[in-house]
Amino acid sequence: MKAHFASMGSLQGPTSATKPVMSRSASAKQISSMKFTTMTVSKWLCHSEASVFCNVMESGDIVEIEHDGHHTFGIGLRARKTDKKGPESIKIAYLKVEASKASGKVVKVPLLEFWVPEANIRINNRSDREYPYHPEEVIRQQVTHAIKTKNVTWQTSEQFAHWCRHNNKPATQDGARRQASDVSKWGSVAANMGVLMFLKKRERFNSK
């Protein structure tokens, strides 16, 4: 069964008043308790507690950082075929939004590049309470697709993360057009086959 996490804080706005502070020696003791709780949102963790985060995060989890009141969401992905549990074994895919550009760009970066100094991090699968979530392999495919596409339609990093974990709709305008084209193409084929079957039936009827 997938591990779930205890809820603290809110999705929006400063949450410094609710962030727990754990010493390095206490961090290891928190790992097991975080792994087997029943909710889907972890406690806020600081950089000194990186080992806790790295031990409980699973590929496909939505991760969230809070820095100076701003929140950024991404998808956590562990390196394949490795026994390492440290930050070097984790990358984060997220929508990087720049004020100077009309739309953002999906990037995949090392954990410590996403988790900037002085920021706090948590696992935030809160949306699992309302929507079914994809297995890890499908989420990886969603991320790969998103990185390759252009003209993305997500407005925020949170929208992107939720799309990767829950959604099956096309991520781009081009994708939507391709889907519509496929529907039209297969609809035309089906219509032609229907006409052909009708003509064959009529031919057999007239030959009797």
Structure description:
Helices cover 39% and strands 19% of the residues. The protein has 208 residues and is of the alpha+beta class. It has a 5-stranded antiparallel sheet. Strands 1-2 form a two-stranded parallel ribbon. The longest helix has 35 residues, at 173-207. The radius of gyration is 23 Å and the shape is globular. Residues 1-25 and 182-190 have low confidence and may be disordered.
CATH domain fold name of the largest domain: endopeptidase fold (from Nostoc punctiforme)
Structural class: alpha+beta
Tell me the span between the first and last alpha carbons. 65 Å
Strand content: 15-25%
Spell the H/E element sequence. EHEHEEEEHEHHH
| The CATH homologous superfamily of the largest domain | endopeptidase domain like (from Nostoc punctiforme)
Number of strands: 7
